[in-house]
Amino acid sequence: MPVTEFHPQPGSAPEHAIPGPAGLPVLGSMLDLRRDSLSTFLGAQRAHGDVVRLEAGPPGLRSVFHAVFAPEGVQQILASQAANFRKDHPLYEEVRQAFGNGLLTSQDADYLRQRRLVQPLFTKRRVDGYASAVTTEAATLADRWRTADDTTVDLVPEMNRLALRTVSRILFGLDAEAAVDTIHRCAPVINAYVVRRAYVPVKIPREWPTPGNLRARAATDEMNALCDRIVGDRRAARGTARDADGEGEDLLSLLAAAGNDEDGSLDATEVREQVLIFLLAGHETTATSLAFTLHLLARHPEEQTRVRDEIDRVLAHRTPTAADLDRLPYLTQALKESMRLYPAAPVISRRAVAATEIGGFRIPAGADVVVAPWVTHRNPDLWADPERFDPRRFAPEREAERHRYAWFPFGGGPRACIGQHFSMLESVLALAVLLRAYELEAVDEEVPVSAGITLQATGPARVRLRPRTGAGE
What residue ranges in 330-385 does DSSP mark as E strands? Predict the structure, then answer.
């Protein structure tokens, strides 16, 4: 699609007329965004509407960006006019610096080449073949809970471990237990560093030996060493490890074969960057969805009962398969509702490369732009009583009535998450295994969160486990 310049139509508002919070006289909204960016965006939408201009930082060093919240505007940015909005936003540049130019951050020819390379890993046929790996890991967790001394667990670390083990088994053909501690220790350090640098008006050079730089560098070095070790182990095991559908083509096998076609070869750094992105993005997002779905069901026992009755009716005592995805509609609705309230990617960033009219306002070329599932998913004009947990919102007939971009936890358009079907399959099957084995009672009613690269729980999501007699036997 060619990039075209925008010519204001009669009645459209100039860029300077876009409303937004005044903030503090010197720092604008900087402190509010640092303290709680999600509440700041939510308050801005309710006070100023669906296109908002925010300023952060002192005069002369002030960052200006625009937030778009209406589904129609989100569709323009992510889909219908996606060519006007690129991943040149400071956040993506910081992610690029920290994690490399993998599929999440690459653009143009690099992105197309990488996507062609990994797309075969995410076809529906191949993803459906991963079901047994998902249920094996979930059953292992259920068994571990049965032998634990404590009947109370924190779902956040538990689901992180489950999702990491699952994605590592499927994508790399490896047992991830040795990687768990490294990722849990290093990923939050890098995450916080990236987000902090993305939104400060003046960036200290990464090479300077400040405490923050040194901590981030040590964490990055450890993560890179982990990825190099995974690549080395997988290459050593090539020919003996096979993927879930028996064709021997996990992610590393596909990357290694890249030199056999017109896309050219990947060097060792490029392979590491893809591994790092898939390790982090491939497990953090699904772990978030699993943890909050279980916690919300623990807080709403009547919904938990309805979901479990469906699981018992459909599965009885057999292990769920990919074919059961369509046979568990209410469990899927509960998962989607949890992803509405706690989207794993709460804010999505872009930079405008051409002036574009959105919602009657002119977004200028060069402007940093964000769309926020966290806010759009809570718009009372789209969702009645938006803070209430109600899986019935996602009944097929109600979904059909809503705008396509009223709910977009996987993004949308040409850069939509390549692993969407993978994540849904993994989540539904893992939830089915765990909910058939246990009744959950919430210990923590609310779970505080913050926006990092992905949504971060900043407090525990504890539940009390009650094993179900005879479940899963």
Answer: 348-352, 356-358, 361-363, 368-371
